[in-house]
Amino acid sequence: MTTGRTDARTHGCTDVRQRALTRWLVAVLWCVSASVPAAARAQELVGNAPERSPYRDIINHQSITLFGGRFAGNAGPASVGALPGFAYGLRLAIRLSGPVEFWTTVGEAASSRHVINADTSVTHTDSARRAPDIKLPLALVDLALALNVTGDKTWHRLAPYAALGAGFVLPTHSVTDPGGYQLAFNFALVPTIGTRWFLSDDLAFRIEARDYFFRYQYPLAYFDTLNLHFAGPPPRSSVLPLGSTDRRWSNHLTLWLGVSYGFTF
Fold first, then answer.
1. DSSP assignment letter at 50
2. Contact by Cβ (8 Å): 185, 173
3. Tens digit of each residue's pLDDT (9 = 90 or more) over 30-61
4. Which has the higher per-residue pLDDT, 49 or 190?
5. Rounded to whole angstroms, how far apart are CA atoms 38 and 34?
6. SS3 152
7. CA distances from 262 to 32, 124, 136, 164, 198 (A)
8. For residues 97 and 129, is the Cβ–Cβ distance under 8 A?
């Protein structure tokens, strides 16, 4: 019986020592893991000269950017949508915290569009249906949240980013086709990717690709094939195939080059 009690006490003491050793190892590992980032940071600050580091702080909290570029347009399935043209714009960016920025972007695309006469008296040929193109400048306005990939720093003076915005595309004037179509106010989603190349702490060159994603809505006349007079001209085809939807989302890729000036209030 004495031997049993001795073995139990020995086993109990072994468990206590094992638990204590485990806790001690966990504490050591935690201290080591916590000290690694600090050591790496210290090495960056002490072991490497700051001018040799690929990272630089972005010191300004606001910036203003002037853009110019190309609005690719998208005529859509009915070929009456916005056509390519020069685009320009202005952006105010505010850094909210760390890598997140808030944007307000306004611009204009010097677009144009085709005009189609969908009247049933017109023959089925596209050349007979199409009227002269009209100029149709588009106002581009959006608000966006942007994420800087390198946080609040640049890497080799580069600061790539991705953003998602929402806004509207609005013609500065509107023309209604004989068939009833007009390009009017449109809600738009605006995904964006790009990068800044910092020339100095305050001045940066910016290259950016964004897509204005909005919807065209077509009138019922574009689906009309009523021309059943056997003695008259041959029936013309509809502008859009029967059975297709009268609403169609379309993307309008825009490439911008810009110059940004940073400042802090």
1. G
2. no
3. 443 444 344 334 444 444 566 678 999 999 99
4. 190
5. 7
6. coil
7. 40, 57, 34, 21, 10
8. no
pLDDT > 90: what percent of the chain?
Answer: 52
Buried b (16+ CB within 10 A) or exposed e, 194-227: bbbbbeeeeebebebebbbbbebebbebbbbeeb
Q: What is the residue whose two structure tokens read 């897509």?
A: 211
DSSP state letter for 121: T
Nearest to 81 by CA among 120, 138, 15, 151: 138
Helices (H), 43-173: 126-129
Closest CA to 223 of 171, 177, 179, 168: 179
Report the distance separating Cα 252 and Cα 258, nearest Å.
Answer: 19
CB distance 227 to 259 below 8 Å: no
Does the reported pTM lie above 0.85? no
* 214 beta partners: 250
The span from the CA of 240 to the CA of 246, in Å, is 9
CA nearest 200: which of 146, 259, 265?
259
Looking at residue 73, its amino acid is G
Distance CA 137, CA 208 (A): 21
Q: What is the dihedral of CA 56, 61, 67, 72, to 10 degrees?
A: 90
